[in-house]
Every structure is written in structure tokens, then in C-alpha cells.
Design brief:
By secondary structure, this protein is mostly helical. Helix content is 87%, strand content 0%. The chain contains one helix and no strands. The model has no long low-confidence stretch (mean pLDDT 83).
């Protein structure tokens, strides 16, 4: 199903985004 694939891609994208934020934030110790 196309919608399932799209949602999976969205999940992957948000996961990468969170990871990037964590990596960038670790330098400033925001978390």
C-alpha cells in the first residue's frame, strides 16, 4: 500500500531529524 510506505518514510525522516538534533545538541548540552 502506498500510504503505508509514505508513513514509513515519514517515520524514518523524523527519526533522522531527531538523531541530527541530538547530535547537534550534544555539543551544546541542551538535553
Amino acid at each position: 500500500v502506498a500510504s503505508l510506505e509514505e508513513s514509513q518514510e515519514a517515520i524514518e525522516f523524523s527519526r533522522l531529524k531527531k538523531l541530527k538534533i541530538l547530535v547537534l545538541g550534544s555539543g551544546t548540552n541542551k538535553f
